[in-house]
Design a protein that fits this description.
Blueprint: E1 6-12, H1 14-27, H2 29-57, H3 67-84, H4 86-104, E2 113-119, E3 123-130, E4 133-140, E5 146-149, E6 153-159, E7 162-167, H5 175-191
Antiparallel strand pairs: 1-2, 2-3, 3-4, 5-6, 6-7
Helix pairs in contact: 1-2, 1-4, 2-3, 2-4
């Protein structure tokens, strides 16, 4: 039987932390609710702005169209403007949250953090070393609720807003060791069904 435990050391940078926050904004329940509310509000504002602008511009050309067209045109312009703005409005929430977090952490000099990850049969030992202080957390595989990823990292969420950041490619490991690490993680995650929203 294959060895099902492994230890690895790596560093988490501020950019990795921000990437985790970006991933959490996409996956976190509270952020999805807030993003949907903001989307509806901003879309309504864009729609109403389109109507107001078209009402202000249309009086000069009102004599060229029928009364019914004159009444419906601002609504159509509002709908078209709102449809064109759907994509930017959807991205606005994640952008605003990222900007807010960067502003709050702009003077945080605690980065990078050293991380020691020990993967065992039934749990993960996560040790984070920052400012000469070690914090060790033992996380059972069953408690990993959700998994996310981007081009650089895997995010194993063990609480709503807490995740283990695992680099997809660790420079301290060779290619086969990186593959073994990710196979081991996937093997454990497949045994314990994880939601990949």
């Amino acid at each position: 039987m294959r060895n099902r435990s492994m230890g690895v050391e790596y560093q988490i940078s501020f950019e990795d932390f921000m990437a985790l926050q970006k991933d959490y904004v996409k996956r976190g329940k509270i952020h999805r609710i807030k993003a949907n509310i903001l989307f509806v509000l901003l879309t309504a504002m864009v729609f109403l702005s389109g109507i107001i602008v078209s009402i202000l511009v249309l009086p000069q050309s009102a004599y060229l169209m029928s009364f019914t067209s004159y009444q419906l045109l601002p609504i159509f312009i509002g709908i078209i403007l709102a449809a064109l703005m759907i994509r930017p409005v959807k991205k606005f929430y994640a952008f605003a949250i990222g900007l807010q977090l960067k502003f709050m952490l702009r003077n945080d000099k605690r980065w990078p953090h050293d991380v020691i990850l020990h993967i065992h049969e039934t749990f993960i030992d996560l040790t984070v070393i920052r400012e000469k202080m070690n914090t060790t957390t033992q996380i059972a595989w069953e408690s990993i609720k959700m998994m996310g990823e981007d081009g650089k990292n895997l995010y194993l969420y063990y609480e709503e807003a807490e995740a283990i950041i695992v680099p997809k490619s660790n420079p301290a490991l060779n290619e086969s060791e990186n593959r073994i690490l990710h196979d081991l993680i996937n093997q454990h995650l497949n045994r314990h069904v994880v939601n990949e929203k």
